[in-house]
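Sequence only, no structure available. Ideas?
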Amino acid sequence: MNKIEAKFNRVKKMIEKYPQVFEYGPGASEAAIQEAEEQLNVTFPPLYRKFLEIYGYLVTEDESIWGIAPQNLEYDLVSQNDKFKNMLAKSGKPPLLSYLVGIQTFEESLICLDLKTKSYDGAEVKTCFYPPEKEGSEYLDDSFTELFYMECDNAISSYLDEQTFKKDNHPPSTIKETKLSSTQDDLYETAKQLILQHPELSELGDGYTKEEIAIVERELGVNFTGSYYTFLNEFGGGLFGENVFFALDDDELIKINLQLYHPTDYEHGLAKNLVAVYYDDLEDFYACLDYENKINGEPSVVYRNANVPEEDYDQNERLQSFAEFLLYIIKDTVSVNG
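Reply:
I predicted one. Tokens follow.
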């Protein structure tokens, strides 16, 4: 599974987790998809076709992604493209180009699949505006899946913000709530067992000795403790699914962090109190141990992007430990690949 397919599957899990946020159909049959392709005289790219097969179309509170919706023409791809083409003809504007298929509206423009572009080894095409604000194509995302993810992530974020607002403005309950808490050892052990139960996803190593770990500590000027030290000792680093945990082999952890501290291709470097231990190439962020903000003796974990100054981040957004971060990543990967 390549990274864009993994991202598509992640969006599926998001929708499954928050079904109340979305409206969608039962999915379109192969015959219905082929009929739409014939009516538009196009061939849909594989992952948009997969979207049609699973959902047909998708609607959130603020946006919709058109598809196969014969019972609701407001979200029907063919109907909406015909409507837009008629509007262009009546206004005397240039016609919609044959290789563009509108899947959304944005103000007075369409957001389209550009079928003459290819990305991710042909699994995807880029999305663009039509008419463009300036001459030539104006690409929005490098794939339909990126747009799909963005819409679903925004919808879920809005829903959770609304729930938080309601909770914060609700009269306090007279019943005292109790909540079970897990120690960092428990969180790490749960993550470890999931890793061991899914060898088909794991390309992690066998761990490093304390002498090997000490060399890296001296180079980076830190003292690895708690759950991250245990992870280095037991697994070292490597891949779990598509997730990249930096290894000590070939000085990988050292080289990556020194490069982030002293970038040559961009202006802002990683703060020196942070040690990047993980990279997510789907979302383009690093997970970093924060040695200036320890919780119960362990460095907390923050997400950082390249070339973003530290003052631009919300310092309250952090996980309590590497164990908490590790368990989230492992559970999410097992769920996506389940």
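Residues 144-168 form the longest helix (25 residues).
Hope that gets you unstuck.
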